[in-house]
Specification:
alpha/beta; 8-stranded mixed sheet; 38% helix; binds beta-D-fucofuranose
Length: 324
């Protein structure tokens, strides 16, 4: 551990140990990601007694692997990893383990052959998010007397836990409710790619009436593409936009009705990661997995509550005071 070896005149060690954290972040692909980075930076600040080495991998796993190797070389006290995809971590995490550096995984999950390769994970239940969205759409379609659901899926980065969970929930719902799933393609969680994918889907299919966007930035791009194509979004428009994250921009669009449903995915993991590190510092046990609780936001109040696996989830109608 990198201790500030300050001893006073009597040789007593001063209480100024700095905890060094190496944080490997996916990138800066979305508003969610920016909020997540800010939350980590805010907590692991110098004034809170930390030295944070922040590495932005620009959505590339190889950059994350290189960053982790460099954290090991620098002998950081903890490695915090927000992994781009689930697989491909065994070798580098084994190195961290051999070096005795605890790894805390945040946001997306890792799939490793040996669970002891990381200490703890904190993030969202992405499949549940998807199931909530689909249960809402089923209830909404029934409330509004929609005859058919002709849906397209703008997926997230392939192999990332939120993509896997949100896509899986949709494909299961398609079976269960008899919806027509016209197309699915990744927009890599970005606004630009989301727009591009939506534009090409609109060219191929005339009858799309719902787009399931696996994050807000893709929804922003999809809305642009739909409007550019001369169609309208919203409860009285041609296409219903469903989204995930509930970022500020996402909530504003939900208030306007451009997004009809937005399932929250909370990015503010800084304090949760710090909580884990504090417990480890005190020699306490930590939970292997921690799931955050999340809400749902809608335009209008057509569906006030849905039930998934016997649990009721209330849906908050977005009004100006929620935006503020
Ligand atoms: O939904 C998306 C971001 O991993 C939960 O990544 C995160 C996802 C989030 O780019 O906006």
């Amino acid at each position: 551990s990198k201790k500030a070896d300050a001893s006073d005149e009597n040789g007593m060690e001063a209480e100024n140990d700095v905890i060094t954290i190496g944080f490997s972040q996916v990138g800066a692909e979305s508003d969610w990601r920016t909020a997540h980075s800010e939350s980590i930076k805010k907590v692991f600040s110098e004034k809170n007694g930390y030295e944070l080495i922040f590495d932005d991998a620009r959505q590339k796993q190889e950059n994350q692997v290189a960053a982790i190797f460099s954290f090991i070389q620098q002998e950081v006290d903890y490695i915090v990893l927000a992994p781009v995809t689930e697989t491909g971590w065994d070798t580098v995490l084994q190195e961290a383990k051999d070096a005795g550096i605890p790894v805390i995984v945040v946001d997306r999950m890792v799939k490793v052959s040996d669970e002891s390769l990381y200490t703890a994970w904190v993030g969202s239940d992405f499949k549940l998010e998807g199931r909530k969205a689909c249960a809402w759409l089923d209830a909404y379609a029934k409330a509004k007397g929609m005859q058919e659901i002709n849906i397209v899926d703008i997926q997230g980065t392939y192999g990332a836990t939120p993509q896997i969970g949100r896509t899986q929930a949709l494909t299961e719902a398609v079976e269960q409710y008899g919806w027509n799933l016209l197309a699915m393609e990744s927009g890599e969680f970005t606004q630009a790619k989301g727009k591009e994918v939506m534009a090409s889907m609109l060219e191929q299919y005339e009858n799309i009436n719902v787009v399931y966007c696996e994050n807000d930035n893709q929804a922003f791009g999809a809305i642009e593409a739909i409007e550019d194509a001369g169609k309208t979004v919203g409860p009285d428009g041609d296409i219903l936009v469903i989204s995930f994250d509930a970022t500020h921009g996402g909530i504003v669009n939900t208030m306007k009705g451009k997004i009809v449903l937005n399932v929250e995915c909370n990015p503010l993991h800084g304090p949760r990661v710090e909580d884990i590190i504090k417990k480890l510092e005190e020699g306490k046990e930590v939970d292997k997995q921690i799931f955050t609780e999340e809400r749902m936001y809608s335009h209008g109040a057509d569906v006030p509550v849905i039930t998934v696996d016997g649990t009721d989830y209330e849906i908050t109608e977005v009004t100006q005071d929620i935006v503020d």
